[in-house]
């Protein structure tokens, strides 16, 4: 693992081999797969999983409950949201705690790409080799190989030149 200055890696983080981590990164309670590259100013929270050979670009926020499978691209400033009803306080006015909300998982399947500035809402699955355009707001599942763009994200087309099939492990 190579690591830049000013990186915070909590003791409960699991790192694969040859992970590259740049400066000003905060990792805690997560798992990062082999040969993944993590850019500057990235936060990856507890119970998040990033697979092997991924690229996580600068300023990305990967919250609890996000699973990113192998060979995915996450662009600059991508935000994942895991709370359908975010509030600072409970109905009676008390500050919310971890017991006051439910993590809603997100899955980014093998080889998918999410463009810079995209926002992925709770409960979404981005299908294998799908492409989410820059700035899109992903409000529903994305089919494998589909391209979605816009706010809210809408189907645009299917990838025309998909890479060759990968061999089964």
Write the layout of secondary structure elements.
Layout: E1 2-3, E2 8-9, E3 14-15, E4 20-21, E5 26-27, E6 31-32, E7 37-38, E8 43-44, E9 49-50, E10 55-56, E11 61-62, E12 66-68, E13 73-74, E14 79-80, E15 106-108, E16 113-114, E17 119-120, E18 125-126, E19 131-132, E20 137-138, E21 146-149, E22 154-158
Distance between the termini: 24 Å
Radius of gyration over alpha carbons?
A: 16 Å
Helix and strand succession? EEEEEEEEEEEEEEEEEEEEEE
Mean pLDDT over all positions: 92
Query: How many H/I helical runs?
Result: 0
User: Tell me, what is the CATH class?
Assistant: Mainly Beta
Anisotropy-based shape = globular
Main sheet properties: 9 strands, mixed
Tell me the total number of β-strands. Answer: 22
State the domain count. 1
Strand content: 25-35%
Low-confidence stretches: none
Under CATH, the topology can be stated as UDP N-Acetylglucosamine Acyltransferase, domain 1
Major β-sheet strand ordering:
1-4-7-10-13-16-19-21-22
Spell out the CATH superfamily.
Hexapeptide repeat proteins
Task: Tell me the helix content.
Answer: under 10%
The CATH architecture assignment turns out to be 3 Solenoid
Structural class, please?
mainly beta
What is the compact description of this entry?
This protein is mainly β and 169 residues long. Helices cover 0% and strands 30% of the residues.
Explained architecture:
- This protein has 169 residues and is mostly beta strands.
- The protein has one domain (1-85, 99-169): UDP N-Acetylglucosamine Acyltransferase, domain 1 (3 Solenoid), CATH 2.160.10.10.
- Helices cover 0% and strands 30% of the residues.
- The protein has no helices and 22 strands.
- The strands form 4 sheets. It has a 9-stranded mixed β-sheet with strand order 1-4-7-10-13-16-19-21-22, with no helix packed on it.
- It starts with a strand and ends in an 11-residue tail after the last strand.
- The model has no long low-confidence stretch (mean pLDDT 92).
